[in-house]
Amino acid sequence: MKPLKQQKEIWILGSTGYVGSQLTSLLIQKRQRGDFPGRISALGHRTILPWVMQRTNFFMSSLGKLKKNKFIDYPPDVVFHCARLAGKTDRGRRAAAKQGYRANINLRDIFEQLPKPPTVVYCSGTLMYGNTAKIANEEQSISPIAYARAYEYAERPFTRELSEAPLDVRTARPAWILGPDSWFEYFFYRPALELGFVPYYGNGGQQMSIISVEDCAGQLLHVATHGAPGESYNLFGFAPISQLEFAKKTAKILDLDVRQIREKELVKKHGKTAAEALTSNTPITTLHTEWKASYNAVDHDLGLMIARAVKLLEMR
Predict the structure, then answer these.
(1) What is the CA radius of gyration of the chain?
(2) How far apart are the first and last CA of the chain?
(3) Partners of residue 210 on adjacent β-strands
(4) In what order do the strands lie in the sheet with 9-13?
(5) Quick one: angle between helices 148-155 and 90-113, nearest 10?
(6) Which letter, b or e, does each residue of 10-49 get, where b requires 16 or more Cβ atoms within 10 Å of its Cβ?
(7) Strand, coil or helix: what is 12?
(8) What are phi and psi of 86, to 5 degrees?
(9) Angle 213-226/18-32 helices, nearest 10 degrees?
(10) Which of 2, 129, 224, 269 could pair with 136 as two cysteines, CB 3.0-4.6 Å apart?
């Protein structure tokens, strides 16, 4: 893949979402420093972020309504696919997955028909591996659980159902992405303020791999610039940690104790899908050791990363 300085056009689908907005911010910073002289074309839907709209070639549209002429007018070197149609319930997620599947078939066909097909970096997740008995690398078979069951169906046009056309799709599977407005806020930080202790769920022994939202964006970009065609990449920042140990690190920062929330209580309050995700054993590693070693991480200490997320939440 050619260096960032040689790329003329980068598209970000889902540029106003949690990961997409961080990636958009990173590319804007790199353009300001002169590391990326090209144009950023950004797709957003529903969420309005003025700074994205002002600093990119922005399109407000749903994923399913994108037309080929947009990519003819602004031909991409790379497309970051961070757009995931969501639903609030299992039924809603299944319906959204069907819409996402149709939209992705259309997108894949558009990209394959372009005079110069782009590199596609598709942002997926590690719940695709399911509950793993051992640490999972990119050769681990796909066995999606929880939210990933619906998401996996939507991804198939860019994963299982790629045609023989020469389309370079690189699948990125981030670990648990930590930052404000994430699972950390809703299942650890807010409950800690409400209950007076930091919860851990189930037996607490389940292993988690964690990455900051900043390093998730950075590693996504690294997949495009330093990855290889057709490969999958696990994105993570640290060695796996048990959820109990993670809760203890958080509790130390908040000066609180930890306490168990049993799976039955978790199901009652948040439903089976959330419970399955929070009690899953999903430690990951990567086969791409040289690729990982060549990435310059933002966060090197998990405790400091948690503290930063807490500070940002306290400032709200």
Answers:
(1) 19
(2) 40
(3) 176
(4) 57-60, 39-44, 9-13, 78-81, 119-123, 168-174, 232-235
(5) 20
(6) bbbbbbbbbbbbbbbbbbbebbeeeebebbbbbbbbeeeb
(7) strand
(8) -110, 165
(9) 70
(10) 129
Please tell me whether the overall predicted TM-score, pTM, comes out greater than 0.90 for this model: yes
Q: Beta strand 168-174 with 119-123: parallel, antiparallel or unpaired?
A: parallel
Buried b (16+ CB within 10 A) or exposed e, 66-98: beeebbeebbbbbbbbbbbbeeeeeeebeebbe
Sequence length of the chain is: 316
Q: Which of these, 65, 42, 45, lies nearest to 54 by C-alpha position?
A: 42
Asked whether 175 and 210 are in contact (CB, 8 A), the reply is yes
Residue of 9, 15, 62 whose CA lies nearest to 31 = 9
Question: Does residue 25 contact residue 56 with C-beta atoms inside 8 Å?
Answer: no
CATH superfamily, domain at 4-173+213-235+289-298: NAD(P)-binding Rossmann-like Domain (3.40.50.720)
Number of Cβ atoms within 10 Å of the Cβ of 274: 18
Using the structure block, give the residue that is written with the tokens 């619906």. 150
User: Cα(206)–Cα(186) distance, rounded to whole angstroms?
Assistant: 19
Estimate to the nearest angstrom the gap between the alpha carbon of 106 and the chain centroid. 22
Residue 156 DSSP class? G
